[in-house]
Amino acid sequence: MAISEQTSIPSTPPITSNPTTSTTTSPPPDCHDSLMPSQFPAVPAVFGPVPNRAYHEGFMRKAIEMAELALASDETPVGCVFVHNGEVIGRGINGTNASLNGTRHAEFVGLAEIMAKHPQRILTQTDLYVTVEPCIMCASALRQYGIRAVYFGCLNDRFGGCGGVMQIHADRGVDPPYPVYGGLFREEAIMLLRRFYVQENEKGWRQAMKTAREVSLTKRLFAAPEPKPKKNRELKTEILPVTNVNPTANLTRTSTPAG
Ligand SMILES: [Zn+2]
């Protein structure tokens, strides 16, 4: 329909000094206005109670097994499974070392498996079990994909996006937040990471010793001093408890995952 003089957009009225009566001084609406966080359901505390914990621990055990596979593959031991209607539909281990690709986190590996077989909307009825808190990158992707819930083992105190550093899962945003439950098999998840770092240190030290033996005596005298083992090669087994349950509060740092 052609716009007649009667239906065309009226000319802009003069700006008045009273903002309550002006129609031109208000900022234009943006996409966030209709999606204020207050309209989203509140998410529980990250280290709060886990409803039906035994059920979820069964799937977290599978995630731990994936992390053990990562450790055996010389990857940072992070593993995950995605579960839909009680069935694992995606699984992943950290693959950044083998691929030399810093985005090959366990969650992205698992998401790729799901996307190859299912429509994206299946994720809105899917839960993620991952041994280490999702990083900021993964936490954001999971929110954009509409993951139903995330269960994790230990905090990611360097890059965590679900309470460890940032609260991507619950921050103000366009996409609905998702609940996160931390602490399932936390000790196992931490010990896997510690075993990895000890393992990597020992490998580095052995390689340095091998290199030193291979160089000529002259070169060793002038350029390659005998390497010394790092002081922190021993495996520490003490695990401090998480001291609070509020994701926005000051969280105890106990792990140092790489991604
Ligand atoms: Zn990640």
From TrEMBL:
InterPro entries membership: APOBEC/CMP_deaminase_Zn-bd (IPR016192), CMP_dCMP_dom (IPR002125), Cytidine_deaminase-like (IPR016193)
Top-tier EC class: hydrolase
E.C. number: 3.5.4.33
Species this protein is from: Neohortaea acidophila
GO annotation (BP), single: tRNA wobble adenosine to inosine editing
Biased amino acid composition, Low complexity: 7-25
Keywords: Hydrolase, Metal-binding, tRNA processing, Zinc
Protein name in the entry: tRNA(adenine(34)) deaminase
Cofactor(s), names only, from the UniProt record: Zn(2+)
Keyword check for Hydrolase: yes
Catalytic activity: adenosine(34) in tRNA + H2O + H(+) = inosine(34) in tRNA + NH4(+)
